[in-house]
Specification:
Layout: E1 4-8, H1 14-18, E2 20-24, E3 31-38, H2 42-48, E4 52-59, E5 65-74, E6 80-88, H3 103-117, H4 121-139, H5 143-158, H6 162-173, H7 188-227
C-alpha cells in the first residue's frame, strides 16, 4: 500500500499548503505542479474519520481547479496523514495513434486507455492483458514472445527496477482471461507505467514497421513517377 505524509496537524495545515504535486493537468495537458487551494476541515475529519478526503488544487500552468482524492490516516493526537498515491477525479483522455493496429487490438487498447482515463486501474491492467491476448491471436505462435521481448526492451530503455518489471510482467502477461483476483492491486502510478509500456510495445510491434513501409512505398512511387516523366 501507499506511503503516507503528514498533511495537517492540530495547529497548522502548512505542510499541505506547501505541498507541490507533479501531474498532468486534465485541462491544459501540461505536465506541471499543482498547489493546494482547498483543504479538508480538520475538525470535521476528526469528527467523521473519513477513509478518503478530496483536496482542491490549482494548475500552475493554466490556473484551473483540479480535484484529487487521497486515502487518510488519522491519529488520535489530531494529525491527518494523506497517501502518496491519489486518484485524479478528472483526467485528460489518454490518446494513441490507432491507425496501424488491427481492429481487435485497437478496440481492446482503446478500452484500456478509457479505463485509465477514468482512474479504474485494475480494469486498465485487465484490458491491457486482453490487448496482449489480441496481439497474440493476431500474430499467431510468435505473438506472446514478441510482446515479452518488447516489454524487456522497454524495461531497458526506461531503466525500470526489477520489482516493477516483475509486477508489470505479472499484470500484463499472466493468465489467459481478464479477471485474476490473485494479482496485485494496481495503483495509479503502476497503471501509468503499464500504459506507457503498452504504448511503446504496440508502437514497436505495429506502427514502427508500418511507418517505415509507408516511407519506402512513397520512395518507390516517386522513383516510378520520375521514370515515367
Ligand atoms: Zn492546466
Amino acid at each position: 500500500m501507499s506511503e503516507y505524509w503528514l498533511a495537517m496537524n492540530n495547529d497548522t495545515n502548512a505542510t499541505l499548503c506547501d505541498k507541490r504535486l507533479l501531474l498532468t493537468c486534465p485541462h491544459c495537458g501540461a505536465k506541471t505542479a499543482a498547489t493546494v487551494i482547498s483543504t479538508p476541515r480538520l475538525e470535521q475529519v476528526h469528527r467523521h474519520k473519513p477513509q478518503k478526503v478530496i483536496g482542491g488544487f490549482m494548475c500552475q500552468a493554466c490556473g484551473e481547479a483540479i480535484a484529487l482524492r487521497f486515502w487518510t490516516n488519522i491519529t488520535p493526537e489530531g494529525r491527518l496523514y494523506l497517501s502518496e498515491e491519489y486518484a485524479e477525479l478528472e483526467r485528460k483522455m489518454e490518446s494513441f495513434d490507432y491507425q496501424y493496429l488491427p481492429p481487435s487490438v485497437a478496440a481492446d487498447f482503446k478500452e484500456a486507455l478509457t479505463c485509465f482515463s477514468m482512474s479504474c486501474y485494475n480494469a486498465t491492467a485487465a484490458m491491457c492483458r486482453r490487448t496482449i491476448q489480441s496481439v497474440a491471436t493476431d500474430l499467431g505462435a510468435v505473438g506472446t514472445s514478441k510482446v515479452s521481448k518488447q516489454i524487456l526492451e522497454a524495461k531497458e530503455t526506461a531503466g525500470l527496477d526489477e520489482q516493477t518489471f516483475t509486477e508489470i510482467n505479472q499484470l500484463v502477461l499472466d493468465g489467459h482471461d481478464g479477471a485474476h483476483p490473485h494479482l496485485p492491486v494496481v495503483t495509479a502510478s503502476r497503471a501509468a507505467v503499464v500504459v506507457a509500456i503498452m504504448k511503446d510495445v504496440l508502437d514497436q510491434i505495429y506502427a514502427r514497421r508500418a511507418r517505415i513501409q509507408k516511407a519506402a512505398d512513397l520512395r518507390q512511387e516517386s522513383i516510378a513517377a520520375k521514370k515515367s516523366e
